[in-house]
């Protein structure tokens, strides 16, 4: 097991030193004594127990984890027993009832990002190594059925992606290789073929080939024109792996109500990040965004994105992967039904994965694998 690393920055949560109580539902001193709950109201402890019971049947499918990059900088680690240098390990995932994780293959800025294909393959290799060294707790999966099987066997399902679109190096052949190695999600934003003016001709071919392979498109951070065109073109649901409601917080990665409604109409999935920058400093702020996305896009189009181990600052009481029950308890307090919550945590991700798998099987009988490079369709691309 890794020694504790003093020089590795820990992801923090807002106000972690401000003297707030550990439990966001705990009454402050001077309020009602323990056990004295007004008639007709449910106690905070009861809500938390209900949340844990619901999550036991419908665990969290977390849309974004930066764990691979965080582990890359540790000299050693043991996720099975627990690892203090990161936000995510197996004990905390069990406490948080996490059943599946999308492990990001995103690249940082700097020299590594200048060699995107090799760096993405190195990230992928690291993920495989981590899973292989924790066989009792983790399982690398590709399909919705394999996610269910991993859960039934007591493993956390690990799905590869999102990776950055730059990792394709302008080649559909590279996309196919990454898919063959297990890639399930690709982020379109920040590429030469998915800019502010929308998808180029090559970008459209990327989306079509992703549909044929079963790779999901992530439009987090993309301009409205790219989001709209991707929604219109894709035959499978489109993801926003880290987007909240811009109407509540004007972050560039958050979605306007028009885009949320379009995403809902296309049966896509907006995965709300648990970051203070995008959603706010406390559990109720995150819940406000979840309420808003549910109301605008629909309960079948909202999910969760922990965004742990990504360097982000998290809201109070959502500092690591063990804290999901506290968020679900807040949603129960607000009147979310168990059906809505089961979709939020687990069902919506399963729907999206099943849809992508089904579409890919059908498309592979109709469409040959194209061998295009970006210069074939976008001659002015860099």
UniProtKB/TrEMBL annotation:
<keyword id="KW-0378">Hydrolase</keyword>
<dbReference type="InterPro" id="IPR008257">
    <property type="entry name" value="Pept_M19"/>
</dbReference>
<protein>
    <submittedName>
        <fullName>Dipeptidase</fullName>
        <ecNumber>3.4.13.19</ecNumber>
    </submittedName>
</protein>
<keyword id="KW-0645">Protease</keyword>
<feature type="region of interest" description="Disordered">
    <location>
        <begin position="1"/>
        <end position="39"/>
    </location>
</feature>
<dbReference type="GO" id="GO:0016805">
    <property type="term" value="F:dipeptidase activity"/>
</dbReference>
<dbReference type="InterPro" id="IPR032466">
    <property type="entry name" value="Metal_Hydrolase"/>
</dbReference>
<keyword id="KW-0224">Dipeptidase</keyword>
<dbReference type="Pfam" id="PF01244">
    <property type="entry name" value="Peptidase_M19"/>
</dbReference>
